[in-house]
Batch of 2 targets.
Target 1
Amino acid sequence: MASCAKGSISDNRFELTIEVPFPSQREVSIALQSLSPDREPGTGGTIKTLSASVSALSVKWNAVEARSLRVSVGSFLDHLALVMETIDAFGQPALQCN
């Protein structure tokens, strides 16, 4: 699922970044809009940042505790799988014409 994943520990914080490739910019946009509303709960000190490029969704986590990072990443991957299954079920998004 992820084309690139890197993790590190700096200043007693845990970081993880993944890049999720998509076939088109439209699908990247759909995934970003679908996953952005999910904010992290206030406990645990985990910060999740989503961004998009032409063909990939980038997600970066920064957490104080390894456990909260693991829970956040697991939850995100579950939601991402659902978004990808939905995109597959409805087919390639149609181009919008004016």
Note: Residues 66-90 form the longest helix (25 residues).
Target 2
Amino acid sequence: MLDDRSRSLLKSLVEHYIADGQPVGSRALSKFSGLDLSPATIRNVMADLEDAGFVASPHTSAGRVPTSRGYRLFVDSLLTVQPLEARQMGEMEEALQGRPVNQIIASASQLLSGLTHFAGVVIAPRRAPSRIRQIEFLTLSEKRILLIIVTTDGDVQNRVLTTEKSYSSAELVSAANYLNQNFAGMDFEQIRQRLSVEIMQLREDIKPLMTQALEAGDAALSENSAPYVISGERNLLDVEELSSNMKRLRDLFDLFEQRSSLIRLLDVSNRATGVKIYIGGESGIATLDECSVVAAPYVVDGQVLGSVGVIGPTRMAYERVIPIVDITAKLLSSALSQQNS
């Protein structure tokens, strides 16, 4: 446990570093901490904090910067959150009212990015599993087949299958007819269960096609089961800690595009009450080791439907970002509840 003096100095160091991004020296701390301590005493305390893993010394500077562990202690026990002004909350509420659901979700993402100047993410309400209206196979080349899936809600998904053998047009029509006659109106999980029983009755040469089509179709529709909206990714180009490393920045944008890892991370926050904060490596996603994610679930009729979040550098103004995420989640819950009423 840190004593009060160490905690006060750590708090001052984190706040000062967040404000200007420069390593903080002992003289600056003696000036900004408000404590009647000499620079020599502060240096000793800083050395102890460094030994404990709360701060680190960059090679090019005599000052110190907070580590992920230092940020964690700061967020958990030293931070004073700034409530949002009533005027700003009113503007946020107005931006989410009286719109279709997809526009409400997009507006929430834009609010998060616009107010924090980082990336704003919203995991939209998960839709019920899509049910199949029709499946069709079209020959593209000798061993490449286009799988076309039409769902009962009118969604159309196309996937290219690469097969080990070539199929005639008659075989593809026969396979599609079998699926349409036996499985129309079912979702892919129901089809999977039925087909696992009935597949033994199929011709040996058609079994691989059925299995491949099932896996590809399930994957295609699952991608849309949790729509993912992100705004303000380009804001991160202005963050020196991230933009100074082009590989890290490319990896970060790849993460946004691939989205599955980020969706899983935000899904975990659905089980939290209130705001959940991942600092550095706490996310378990290597690409986010230099980032923090502040997320919160939103609820309609007592059920968690999704989550909102902000992605930015570990050096972020947590006292401001946390209430923005918290209020956005609450306002989104309210706006979607009105849609259901």
Note: The domain at 86-126+226-340 is CATH 3.30.450.40 (Beta-Lactamase).
